[in-house]
Amino acid sequence: MFEDRTTERIKAEALAKINQATGLSPMEGGFADAMIGPAAEEISKLYKALPAVASMLFVDESSGPYLDAVGQNYFNITRKEGTYAYCDVSLTGEAGTVLPAGTAFLTSGGLEFTLVEDVVIGSTGTATGRLRAAGTGSAYNVEAGAVTRMYVNPLGLSSFENGEASGGTDVENDSALYRRIDERRKRPPTSGNGYQLRQWAMEVPGVGEAKVVELAGGRGTVSVTLVDANGKAASAELVSAATAYIEARRVVGSTVSVASAAELEVSVSATVQLTAATTAAAVRLELQEKLEAYRRELISEKFRQVYYRPEEDGAYTMIYNRVAALLLTIPGVVNYTALTVNGKTEDVSIPAGSVPVLGEVRIQ
């Protein structure tokens, strides 16, 4: 924008305006040249800094640290921290064996989980405990059976197996933070209205989307349905945290129910004609990325609305032809001879309280 405002250009313009009738010479190496040169350099630095002002005043996803500054200073919005993943663990061993809270378990890749509470193996030789990830982040959302090791193998414990871990989310990224700032500007929350309830829910670390239905069960009742930052069903811990956060702020006299969205698995299978420049495996990976972005878009469009009555909150649709278009836009895909979504060649209806999650994607 100000690329032409260089030190040399500014200096030359200033020297050209000197009135030589005053006895001051613009010659190089003269008094005026020596005085104007440093000033021109400092002025040029100001011009170089000016493009950043737009990022400071009119933030977007590329504004970097200014995004945090505007969010905090003007809207009291701060970047959400990541959350911990949790999973159940089945334990087998000698009756009476005690595993204290904090006992550490590991995945083969070194991700650590610890017992939330003391567990005592019962008379049947089995017990169930709850594990929490040692750190935050979606990397801890491991599959069932992924926890395989311990730092120390306790006497009396013969085996263990974890269930699928969920609830781990990463630190809020710039895109998500900007969307919250932009929504606050466009939909001012006030007096415990639907926008404010959504705002409160979205402030809870780990919440990715929150759908509000006013008058959910009649006057004075409101429902809030949560999706985590991974676009999946919210964990019990996340629902509990959001419930407590909203309860501490809700308008007196209102009853707010907080629940997780259900998950509807969507699987895609296609037989495709490819060029020699790509492979079925590469197409599958790219289609997975495109489908993930599409389902996130669907969830955002559905959940960011505030619904006045339950009947306004209807089912929404994953469009079959949109899936076909995503497939055909992948480089190297010439055509497809078969394409099914959940085994059919039609749109997928998603219940109001559910979110689509990506199942198997097959390309052949």
UniProtKB/TrEMBL annotation:
Ranges of residues in domain Baseplate J-like central: 189-259
Task: Give all residue intervals belonging to the Baseplate protein J-like barrel domain.
Answer: 89-168
Report the domain of life of the source organism: Bacteria
Q: Please give the Pfam families that the UniProt record associates with this protein.
A: Baseplate_J (PF04865), Baseplate_J_C (PF26079), Baseplate_J_M (PF26078)
Baseplate J-like C-terminal domain segment(s): 266-363
* PANTHER family in UniProt: PHAGE-LIKE ELEMENT PBSX PROTEIN XKDT (PTHR37829), PROTEIN JAYE-RELATED (PTHR37829:SF3)
Family from the record: Belongs to the Mu gp47/PBSX XkdT family.
Name of the featured protein? Baseplate J/gp47 family protein
Species whose genome carries this gene: Oscillibacter hominis
